[in-house]
Each structure stands twice: as structure tokens, then as C-alpha cells.
């Protein structure tokens, strides 16, 4: 194992968990077995890929440019090119001034995009089976490494439900149906409105059209663990106002979106959604989010000849390692971490 001095503490900390290289391999193997194609997208782009101010801007031979906040725009363009299902493992850049235990300015992104046949739950089903495969493979292949990490940073194994009848769907008014997952170890899935009710019943007041903050996420994680015995669950149908411009609104209520987040140990680890594949709606959404449409014109134009309904998700490798091993700081999972204060070595 490799250790380096941590500028944020007086003792040596684990800088590279020994099984970090295994994660991209398991990720690739699973997706290739599901008919996905690996792609590589540019990290120098003309405009923001996510919107907002958390973007590194630079001069590109006299033209304004950005470091890609995700491969979002280009993996969607691959779907428009009839790839059907694609994935990428590559660097992601976020210029956030986030001095937290779980944010980095550069990290390794694991990204997926796929055609949707009927419903965005198809994307959540891929997340379900992918992460069960990741958890199972890490526990099987990396027992010695996990034991070594546990000696330095003791942690409890991740708790994941193994029964079949786990999927609970909620309307804004409350639970309306329960169904069975096609996989024997599926995470809980419920709408954000359903979990908002859950938090309110516990005496926690939150904005029903806002996003969950870190404190609310952690409290929700405790409540889910106490009630259902799992630390791995999915929230979907977020308010549209808190999601990126390319997220598809719900057909029954455009206040909400066909989006989801995945949580491990009470912290968000994946963000995903069905995407807008209609160019006029995409333009309207981009303008509403303050994005200069001229900077993403080639992206919008790629949908003008027709595009299938599609969706996907992205996850940071370092955050998976941090939460799987219940580490208290994401910097312990990166060999050369990049945060708002660290640009060397």
C-alpha cells in the first residue's frame, strides 16, 4: 500500500486503495457483457457540459474553451450515431470551491449512456445490476486488500438488501404500488417525493421542490438503514429545477424530471436521468439554465436528424472506493488528489 503525507492531517494516510484499479476493469467487463461499446471523448470542449459556474475555462488557440465537466454531450452524440449503448472511463474536471470530504476538482469518471425502449427505469436496472456486480467482485477478488484497509481504517461491510420484493414506487401522495425486481439483489427505488414524506414524518422539514442537502442525505441514510436494513438505494423523479439542462421533464408533471440519484451509506454516488432528445426543448432548457446555446450548437444540431429516447449516468471512481470502504475523506482514495488548494505534486 502507498502512503503520502496528507496536508490536511498530521499523520500518514492511505493514498491509493489497493483495489482501485480493479473497479474500472469490473465496470468495463460488466458493460461489455451487456452489449455496451467503450468510447473516448474529448476533454477540451467549446462550452460547459453541465451548466453552472463550476467549469475550468481556458484559451484554446484564441478561442474560449473549457475542461469537460463530464463526457455528457459527446456520449449522447454517440447514441445519435446509432451506437445504442456506450460507456467511458476517463478524467472529469469540476471547478467547484468545495472544501468537503467528498469533492475533488479532478477525478476518474465512469460514464454510461444507452437507448431507452420504454421507460427510464431501464437505466436504473443497469445501475442495479452493475453495482451488485461491482460489490460482489470486490468482495471476492480483493479480500486481502480489504482486510489490510480495515486494519488501518476499520469499517463495517456495506449492507445491501438481498430479497426480491424491494422496489417501492411512490406518487406525490404516497406509496401506490410494490413490484419485484428482476435481479435477486436490487436496491430500493423510490421517488424523491416519497422520501421527502419519509423525512417529514421524522420531523425534518425540507423544500419539496428543492434538492437534498448533505445533512438531509445523511439523515435519510440513517432512516433507510434502520427501517429497511440497506445502505444502497435509489431516489428518482427529482424536481426539474435542481437537475442539469439536458434532463427530460416528466410527461405527467413537468415540475419533476425523469432523473435519479444512487446513494451508498447516506451519500450520493451516482447521478443519472433520461435525456432531452428533442432539439427545440433542449434549446429552451439550456437557455433557462443560463447556457449560451451558441457554445453547444453542434451538440443541439446532432439531434435534428432524429434521436432515440436515451438516458445514462455518471459516477466517480474515487467516491465509490471512499463509500465502499467507509473512508472519511475522498483524498485517501486518490494517488495525486486535486482539490481547490492542491495542484502539486
CA-based gyration radius = 20 Å
Task: State the share of residues found in helices, binned by percent.
Answer: 25-40%
Order of strands in the sheet with most strands: 3-7-8-15-14-13-12-11
Mean pLDDT: 84
Strand content: 15-25%
| Individual helix count | 9
Order of helices and strands: EEHEEEEHEEHHEEEHHEEEHHEH
The profile of the biggest β sheet is: 8 strands, mixed
Number of strands: 15
Shape: globular
Question: How does this structure look, described?
Answer:
Keywords: Aminoacyl-tRNA synthetase, ATP-binding, Cytoplasm, Ligase, Nucleotide-binding, Protein biosynthesis. There is one protein chain. The protein is of the alpha+beta class and 345 residues long. It is built from nine helices and 15 strands. It has helices spanning 22-33, 72-80, 121-141, 143-152, 192-201, 214-228, 279-288, 297-301, 317-324; strands at 2-5, 12-16, 37-38, 44-45, 57-60, 63-67, 85-93, 106-115, 167-171, 174-179, 188-191, 232-236, 259-264, 267-274, 310-316. The strands form four sheets. An eight-stranded mixed beta sheet has the order 3-7-8-15-14-13-12-11, with helices on both faces. A three-stranded antiparallel beta sheet has the order 4-6-5, with no helix packed on it. It has a two-stranded antiparallel ribbon with strand order 1-2. Helix 1 packs across helix 3.
